Amino acid sequence: MARCGLAAFTMERREINDPEAWNRIVTGLPLTSALQSWGWGEVKRTSGWKPVRLALYDGGAPVAAAQLMERRLAGPLRMAYTPRGPALAEAGLLPRVTTQLARAARGALYLQLEPPLALEEPYETPAYADLRPAATIQPEYSILVDLSPGEEAVLARMKSKTRYNIRLSARKGVTARIVRPHDEGAAAAFEAFWALFTETNQRAKLLQHARSYYKTVFREMEQPGGAAFVSLAEYQGKPLAAGLFVAFAGRVDYLYGGSSREHKNVMAPYAMHWAAMRWGMEHGYRVYDLWGVPRVLTPESHAYGIYRFKEGFGGKRVRFPGYVLPLSPLYGPVQTGLRWRKNWVNWRTRGTARDVL
């Protein structure tokens, strides 16, 4: 267990069981993420995780919030995890917050933390006592686009080819629309997304959850203080590109997407992203998160093409660090076993033990 000094004992921990109250706390903290929202906990509940929402107070004010996820690994063995979290008032609070979370996770093999610290080059992981740097569960690297200057400035910062392709898609007659869960046609828009997403993953030899999982994302992330939507780009009435997005705490996150190989010349994926960006700007969101890009930028990388596409939108490549706090001597052997299992799944799926990102 982490030992961070007597100051840690002044921090008060409260479990929050109201969605609106929880989301108010999470959105009120400067370092935060949609994966700390109430809705994301409900999404992960469907795949075996148990969310516990813990707010931490210092002097009566909330200074951190952690959606602590617990999951059994095998038999009585379990882990505790805060996806893209905990949310923090400032990064220096992480050791004190870890002490509190370790108490709440008593009995787990280890506690995994992925604080929402968007590190820019040289991407150095901040050091904290007792916390070990660790591989992340969420994508480690992403590209963030600043939406705050408005449409013309956002376009001007893009690579010229990306800007050209956005305008080309409009000239070719591609139309893109935003569909939220309660809009007319939401069911059809989701099915179009699902078909394109599945087609893309099969083509790229990528794993995915069951259809019900993404349906839950679409439903549960439309929540107090947040939104979920499908951005759907069509050409001559046919869906060609679609993405499933969540919006929360000033950010629009591109979580999942896919496109058809038909009519590639009309550049539908560019129209899909530009529609989502414009929606974000219209609704006051400041950051557009293109989500995962490779950690190693070489043409041989399985996802290098994804990186080249996403970097064209003019954002900054950032790194989100991961940490682990071992809580049991079994941590090391279990981690070795989990890594072997992941290598085997990668090999079975794509013929290589390397991770996608």
Structural description of this entry:
It is a single chain. By secondary structure, this protein is of the alpha+beta class. Helices cover 33% and strands 27% of the residues. It has ten helices and 15 strands. The longest helix has 20 residues. The protein is globular and about 60 Å long. The N terminus is likely disordered.
Overall structural class, as computed from helix and strand content, comes to alpha+beta
Biggest sheet record: 8 strands, mixed
Mean pLDDT across the residues is 94
Low-confidence stretches: 1-8
Query: How many individual helices?
Result: 10
Could you state the order of secondary-structure elements as H and E?
A: EHHEEEEHEEEHHEHHEEEHEHEEH
From the N-terminal CA to the C-terminal CA, the straight-line distance is: 31 Å
Question: How much β-strand is present in the residues?
Answer: 25-35%
Number of strands: 15
Radius of gyration: 21 Å
- The gross shape turns out to be globular
| Share of helix, binned | 25-40%
Secondary structure layout plus pairing:
Elements lengths: L11 E4 L3 H9 L10 H8 L4 E9 L2 E14 L2 E6 L4 E2 L5 H11 L5 E4 L18 E2 L7 E6 L4 H7 L2 H12 L3 E5 L6 H19 L6 H10 L5 E10 L2 E11 L2 E9 L8 H15 L4 E7 L10 H8 L4 E4 L3 E4 L4 H20 L7
Helix pairs in contact: 2-7, 5-8
